[in-house]
Design a protein that fits this description.
This protein is an all-alpha fold. The protein has 11 helices and no strands. The longest helix has 23 residues. It is globular and about 45 Å long. 31% of the residues are buried. The mean pLDDT is 89.
Length: 204
Amino acid sequence: MDTAFQLAESWHRYQLRKGSKVPYISHLMAVSALVLEHGGTHEQAQAALLHDILEDTGLTYDELAARVGKTVADIVAHCTHADSDDEKTPEAWKWRKQLYLDRLRRDGRKSNGELADFVLVTLADKTHNIETTLREIEHGDYAETDYFARFNAGRDLQEWWYTSLLRTYIDIHATHELVWRFRDAVCKVFPNNPEFQENAYDEM
């Protein structure tokens, strides 16, 4: 865990949460804490600290694996979005997110039927993201529509992303306690989505 934290702190040291002055390391620590609080392994907790390192820094998979081992590096790789030469456009953003959803649906279960190790890490990551969004919308001094202006993708695409994530977690039967937290926050951030009408996800 020491090596994972040192890597996360050194590579993300000067990064901030989007639209804020909050050090990015706070998100990584929170995701790792959620993983541990919900039964995650030591390897999953390390991967949680490092889940953005391949996507947002110059560290390579081979370099990461040499430092923390293949098991942790593989979890991180499964949590990493695809590269795009034109990632600032909404179209490229949605393309990258769709590939992530496809991977989650395809690889979310091991051959023995158990949930793949990366699922808890991605679920903790997305739960912390949407709960942060909800908290900032509820306590910020801006209108909800203005909040999403900070992102490369606006409110409609953000709603598509989070509802698609929730649907995918349910489809792969990731009936983890965190899914309920994720669902609750998504419903509050996007309260008018018809998919979240009462009893829409009773199959959970």
